[in-house]
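User: Teach me something about this protein's shape.
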Amino acid sequence: MGVPKPAPEVRRTRVLSEDEIARVLKACRDDDFGRIVRLLLMTGQRRDEVADMAWAEVDLASAVWSLPDPRVKNGQGHDVPLSKPALQVLTSIERVEGGRSCSAKARADSRGSRGPRPRSTNGPA
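Assistant: First, the predicted structure itself:
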C-alpha cells in the first residue's frame, strides 16, 4: 500500500552524428524556425531557452548570451559563448521595435495574427 517509488532517472546519451548534423543544417530554411534549429545545434541549449531568447540577454560585441536563473530549467543561470556562425544567425534576425525577444513566437505575438512584420530602422545590433 502507498505510493510506488519513482522510476530511476534515465539520462540520454544519444548525440547526432556529423552526417546527421549536416543533414539537419541542410534542411534548415532561412526562416525563424531554421534559425532556431541552427542556434540549438550551435549552442547546445534547450529548445525553450533558444526559442525565448531575449535581445537583453545577448551581448553581440562580447559574443555572449547570458541566461538568467529564472529562464533555466535547473535555476542556475549561465553564460553561453556564441561562435561566429551563431553570431551570424543572430545578426541576420530583424529586430522589431519594442520587441523583447529574438524568437519567432514573440515577433508573431507583437504584430498579432494579421499584418506585415514591422520594419526596424535600428538594424540587428
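Now, about its shape. The chain has five helices and three strands. Helices lie at 18-27, 32-43, 47-51, 84-91, 104-111. If you'd like, I can walk through any region in more detail.
User: That's plenty for now, thanks!
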